[in-house]
Amino acid sequence: MRERKSVITFEPLRRMAIVFGLVGGLLFVRVWWPIQAERNLGKLQRVESKVFQKKSELNLLKDRYANLTSLTVIDAWAKKNGPWVPPNGENVIAIK
To answer: Sign of the CA dihedral 52, 55, 57, 63?
Structure first.
């Protein structure tokens, strides 16, 4: 009678590796991915709020500039300081 040699099979190890991979994939899809999406959404909202703040500051500056350069302001300045005259030799200072 022949002796039976022990044959090592890798079937249980292969099944364990498949289960480990599936559990890892499930954890990735169900846990890590939504957490990262929520974190990135928070970053996006912070950046959008900064952009909105900068846009409102820019609009405020535009309004102030428009008020300063409006015809009423320029007319008031002209009435106070006299009309604009083209530069000539008498009213220009030459710096050498």
So the answer is: negative
Coil/strand/helix, residue 85: coil
Judge whether 85 and 91 are in contact, CB under 8 Å: yes
pLDDT at residue 10, as a whole number: 80
Cα gap 85→43, rounded to integer Å: 55
Distance CA 15, CA 34 (A): 28
The structure's pTM equals 0.47
pLDDT band at 85 (very low <50, low <70, confident <90, very high): confident
Interior angle at CA 35, CA 29 and CA 41, nearest 5? 120
Per the structure block, which two tokens stand in for 44? Answer: 């996006």
